[in-house]
Amino acid sequence: MNTINPIITAQALDLTFQTNDGPVHALKDVNLQIDKGDFVSFIGPSGCGKTTFLRVLAALEHPTGGTVTVNGMTPDQARQARAYGYVFQAAGLYPWRTIGGNIRLPLEIMGYPKSEQIDRVKKVMQLVDLEGFEHKYPWQLSGGMQQRASIARALAFDADILLMDEPFGALDEIVRDHLNEQLLALWARTGKTIGFVTHSISEAVYLSTKIVVMSPRPGRIRDVIVSPLPKERPLDIRDTPEFAQLAHQVREGLRAGHDTAMA
């Protein structure tokens, strides 16, 4: 029998922001378990709390109710233990540093020896297929390559968890498809646990082992859909009836959540 190994748990999680116009209920009674090696996508309408939940995991926001653990620790403890890497919507590379320098930055801050910094940068640049670009500057790379460099930076200190906030949303469809393929290959090679925010049903279905469908604010989990698709997924799997059925299930969950909110 396989032992389930939860990496992230949320129980009765609430988050309310206090604003000049009154309280904003961003998350309400969120209960979720993410197991080791899962690729979990969060999908829902704008403002439903997808990014907020990811930010809670990363200790960038603090809940006002309930509990959340990351690798058995509080999010603040997990941040201090470097338990996760975080990839933002924009690549966020410093223009005055080379690509290698950008990837190396968190290692410098953490005090890794110079020789280990060099080894780790080389390794993660290979993982994201950026070999030979270490001495280039961000402006010399395409948007897709910059985002791969951002992923490499998040991987540099070899955390077990990778949190990704709609990292490919600003890219064109062809580049996005290519990066989706590369991300799946990277996930298969590294065995990371990945939390991934997206607005794209197709992207969520293609990438994920689990799809978390969220309702409009206050953000609740409407459904957690376990994917029946095989772990190895060529792009043309999107043309199969199984893929279409799964996409339909996600779409129906989003529609039901919207209809409930409007009622």
Automatic annotation (TrEMBL):
Entry-linked PANTHER family: ALIPHATIC SULFONATES IMPORT ATP-BINDING PROTEIN SSUB, TAURINE IMPORT ATP-BINDING PROTEIN-RELATED
Gene Ontology MF annotations: ATP binding
Protein name, entry field: ABC transporter ATP-binding protein
Keywords recorded for this protein, A-Z: ATP-binding, Nucleotide-binding, Transport
Xref: InterPro entries: AAA+_ATPase (IPR003593), ABC_transporter-like_ATP-bd (IPR003439), ABC_transporter-like_CS (IPR017871), ABC_transporter_ATP-bind (IPR050166), P-loop_NTPase (IPR027417)
PROSITE patterns according to UniProt: ABC_TRANSPORTER_1, ABC_TRANSPORTER_2
CDD domains: ABC_NrtD_SsuB_transporters
Organism, scientific name: Parasulfitobacter algicola
Family (UniProt): Belongs to the ABC transporter superfamily.
Lineage: Bacteria, Pseudomonadati, Pseudomonadota, Alphaproteobacteria, Rhodobacterales
Listed Pfam families: ABC_tran
Domain ABC transporter: 10-237
